[in-house]
Specification:
Number of strands: 0
Strand content: under 5%
Helix content: over 70%
Shape: globular
């Protein structure tokens, strides 16, 4: 009976952390160029949409539900995200020649593995050993942080009582709604997973979520590396990407030079919203602007940038700008300050890109992508 329960919990975790976000990610994937439409990009896109929808519904429920808030949140969010996942999966199935594309993707991955040099294979092996060591230490030497008395307990209170941010975690007494915390619903996301998997919130936060959030963070850095270290030509076989990933893993392991670094938060406070903001949201903004800058304003076949009127080539970049807007909005799930930082970073990078490519449309698209974050800031100012 215990084995069956553990098996069902494992299936629930896989469904809510992998399957549903992946299927939801198939919706924006339809607008992503086929050469970039990889499973990793689809999973990242779906996870961003998953959190964006949860944040929107979560904020509405927190601000309006005095009792049974968690039950109301589950009744609204569950059908909403399952509908998006069903639409994404259905749209992918009915697309023409979809299985031929999957076969080409498999052949491309196999070809890449065969063409990789022994040096690259050894470096990749080193990276996975470092990642495995970090995952082991995250479980065997889990860190206990003082903030858990607030954030993790908020998840537990939501599961046990149904109240959302209306119980003081330190004493258990009723309290007024603290808007600064109420608009950051990352603990409620943990509570959602705990409800769906029937796993205690503390166990889920400390022992299970690092096994998902750490690889997800490295998957994001992998996408950043793919943009930064593209081969100069098709004839160049050696890639710097595995070396980049190893360096990132080493920096994460030895970045504990103070208690305030994002490396410290990633490995010791993986389950906290502040860690998610520093290690996923901000890098995601960089990743999307790297993707946008690759062909924004135009590139010729040799990879040389074009400017002015020649730069105004048509490309389907809707998914990139849409995901940028969702990332900026999703920043609020972790911290209100993260929204401001993401907005500031997006405006700076968008303005710089527009000036370099001499294309005002890039700045206009940046402003449009910042609208969700601006609405969050307005809501925060009105609420506080």
């Amino acid at each position: 009976m215990l084995i069956l329960q553990l098996f069902l919990q494992f299936l629930s975790l896989a469904a809510w952390l992998l399957v549903i976000p992946f299927l939801a990610g198939l919706l924006p994937a339809r607008f992503i160029p086929e050469q970039r439409r990889t499973p990793g990009v689809i999973l990242l896109s779906g996870f961003i949409i998953f959190l964006a929808v949860f944040e929107l519904i979560g904020i509405i429920v927190v601000l309006n539900a005095n009792r049974d808030g968690m039950a109301i949140l589950l009744r609204i969010f569950t059908p909403a995200i399952i509908t998006l996942a069903a639409l994404g999966g259905g749209a992918e199935i009915v697309r023409p020649a979809v299985w031929q594309r999957k076969a080409r993707l498999f052949l491309a991955v196999r070809k890449l593995a065969v063409q990789a040099t022994w040096e690259e294979k050894i470096v990749w092996l080193l990276f996975f050993l470092l990642l495995g060591f970090q995952l082991f230490m995250a479980i065997a030497r889990t860190s206990i942080d003082g903030d858990d008395a607030f954030f993790v307990v908020q998840s537990l209170i939501a599961n046990e009582t149904g109240f959302l941010y209306r119980v003081e975690p330190y004493t258990g007494d009723s309290t007024v709604l603290n808007m600064r915390n109420a608009l950051a619903v990352f603990p409620l996301w943990i509570a959602l997973l705990a409800e769906k998997t029937r796993i205690h919130s503390t166990i889920l936060a400390h022992s299970i979520l690092p096994l998902f959030l750490l690889p997800l963070t490295y998957l994001l850095y992998f996408q950043i590396g793919k943009s930064l270290f593209k081969p100069a030509s098709a004839k160049k076989k050696k890639s710097s990407l595995p070396f980049f990933m190893v360096m990132i893993a080493i920096i994460q392991m030895f970045g504990n030079v103070s208690i305030f670094t994002n490396e410290t938060f990633l490995l010791t406070r993986t389950w906290q919203g502040k860690s998610f903001a520093a290690n996923f949201v901000i890098p995601a903004v960089f990743w999307l602007f790297l993707v946008i800058s690759e062909t924004a304003g135009g590139q010729n076949e040799d990879g040389k940038l074009l400017a002015g009127q020649k730069a105004r080539v048509k490309r389907n970049d809707f998914a990139d700008w849409f995901l940028l807007g969702m990332v900026i909005w999703t920043a609020g799930i972790s911290s209100s300050l993260a929204v401001f930082l993401a907005l500031l970073l997006a405006v700076m990078m968008g303005s710089y890109l527009a000036v370099c490519r001499r294309c005002f449309a890039l700045f206009l698209k940046t402003v449009i992508a910042c609208v969700p974050g601006m609405l969050y800031i307005v809501l925060y100012m009105l609420a506080v």
